[in-house]
Amino acid sequence: MGFFPRFLQDLASNTHLISRAACFAQIYLIYTYGGNEMTTLCVMAYDRFLAVCHPLHYHSRMTVKKALTLVGLAWLLPISVITIAIYRATTLPLCGNKIQKVFCTNWNIVKLSCVPTDLNNGLSMFVTICTIFLPLVFVLYTYTRIMNAAWRGSAKFKGRVFQTCMPHMISFVIYSIALFCDLALSRYNAEEMNPFLAIILSLEFVIIPPILNPLLTFFLRSIVIKKE
């Protein structure tokens, strides 16, 4: 919703112009997608951790109320911090209008500002830590615990852990690689890169994870059903 309608419109047009309001709307949609994806993967990792490492206490620890609370926080936390950062960017006066990317990003807008942007840079770092790095560290920690528990278990237990966690692990790896490429590209001067490579790296984040996640889930579930 945040990327493809505008992208298809640009492909069909000879001029690639976007209004200020539409640009910030695209930033909001894409950034909340990115933040919600990571925090949702974090909640899923916690659910897998309880199921594998504390199976006898799973239903007492993961109640319906707690599950709804975690899902709500996974959505509200990224939306809150991203909204503050984008609002700060909307108040900046701009001395340029050319974005070195195929879609709008907050950092590219901030770089066009005519005034010092130390506060915006600090907010961007805070958003990155809250929505990316903290969930990333938590997911890595939980899966380290899960792998340790599976390693000490029987072959049947290892198979069940593999069957339960593999779709989530693959989705997490794919998304982390795509996110890393996008963050690295945002901080690098795209004009110094090969234009084709810059376009591929910028499109990876908004195309590959959304397409592969449902296909991956369907494929792995089909294998499980066929095996059974």
TrEMBL record:
InterPro entries: GPCR1_Superfamily_Member (IPR052921), GPCR_Rhodpsn_7TM (IPR017452), Olfact_rcpt (IPR000725). The keyword Membrane applies. It comes from the Eukaryota. The chain crosses the membrane at residues 67-87, 123-144, 165-185, 197-220. GO terms for cellular component: membrane. It is found in: Membrane. GO terms for biological process: G protein-coupled receptor signaling pathway. It is a multi-pass membrane protein. Residues 1-217 form the G-protein coupled receptors family 1 profile domain. Pfam families: 7tm_4. Keywords: Membrane, Transducer, Transmembrane, Transmembrane helix. One of its GO terms (molecular function) is olfactory receptor activity. This is G-protein coupled receptors family 1 profile domain-containing protein. It comes from Hippocampus comes.
